[in-house]
């Protein structure tokens, strides 16, 4: 897990926790559970517990950085193909729309990126869906 010659860094550990939470879709509040955080403290005595607000802020910072990278990448794209897909949450009544952009990059490789994931208001008429797509692309 940790090499003896590597110095512990709490900021790196926080980033690892944030990525784990995002990848596995855990709620931010998981960091406040003693049983879950015990594993981090067990191996790393220097580990400093963090709040769900800190983890949420860290997740949003990563999201904003990735969004900025995507906008920079798309500035050099002259044409993009958009696809949409409607998803229904398994534990909610709400429906969400994912907007995916596909384009050819400078090295002639097909790239595919999620551009947006938004809740679609009910009732869902065609004009409402178009409005959601327009707002996402404008942002």
From TrEMBL:
Primary subcellular site in the record, as a coarse category: nucleus
InterPro entries linked to this entry: ZnF_BED_domain_contain
UniProt subcellular location: Nucleus
GO molecular function ontology, one term from the record: zinc ion binding
A GO-annotated cellular component: nucleus
Keywords, comma-separated and alphabetical: Metal-binding, Nucleus, Zinc, Zinc-finger
NAD found in the keyword field: no
Protein name as it appears in the record: AC9 transposase
Biological source species: Cajanus cajan (Pigeon pea)
Lineage of source species: Eukaryota, Viridiplantae, Streptophyta, Embryophyta, Tracheophyta
